[in-house]
Specification:
Blueprint lengths: L3 H11 L1 H22 L6 H16 L4 H30 L4 H20 L8 H25 L29
Helix pairs in contact: 2-4, 4-5, 4-6, 5-6
């Protein structure tokens, strides 16, 4: 049974008047979290002190190389998932087209790594940008595939009637029939 707060939240998001400002606020909150995670508070040495004792206890790890391996998996997964979710927020909150959201998500990843360049405890890494872009690209592929299966017209460029387009019209098959 839905709670009062969840139905209120659903009502706020579905109302055109309030969704105009709620969705961008949620996006700003998500981007703020990503920016905050890129600060010195979440640098590798600090996270290592926090995670290593818990990883050692949970997985019975005693070797430094094993701990380092798990640290890397957690950090890489976080990069990937951050920008997977960021892409979905861009598409959902700002109602951007998938390609626009992908380009913006990658630009945000580059900006995040650029901001880390100026922090003493952080490093600017092209590999991290690649992980971020991979997360956003995966979300892009899934979004496009889902929209294609649903027959969404947001994938096809809007063309005035009579001008023609290389893209199939919504509701028609992209393949020529053999009749």
């Amino acid at each position: 049974m839905p709670t009062h707060s969840s139905s209120l939240f659903r009502t706020l998001l579905s109302s055109p008047r309030t969704s105009k400002w709620i969705r961008p606020l949620l996006l700003i909150a998500a981007m703020s979290i990503i920016y905050f995670l890129g600060t010195s508070l979440f640098s590798a040495p600090r996270m290592k002190r926090l995670l290593d004792p818990r990883l050692s206890a949970a997985f019975q790890l005693h070797s430094e190389t094993q701990l380092l391996h798990y640290d890397y998996i957690i950090r890489w997964s976080a990069h990937y998932l951050e920008y997977f979710v960021a892409f979905l927020f861009l598409v959902w909150a700002l109602r951007l087209r998938p390609l626009t959201a992908l380009l913006l998500a990658v630009a945000l990843a580059v900006a995040d790594e650029g901001h880390q360049y100026f922090l003493p405890d952080r490093t600017c890494s092209l590999f991290d940008v690649k992980l971020d872009a991979a997360g956003a690209a995966t979300a892009f592929i899934l979004t496009v595939a889902i929209r294609f299966m649903r027959g969404s017209s947001r994938l096809v460029p809007v063309v005035a009637e009579g001008q023609g387009s290389a893209a199939p019209r919504p509701g028609t098959s992209p393949f020529k029939s053999s009749n």
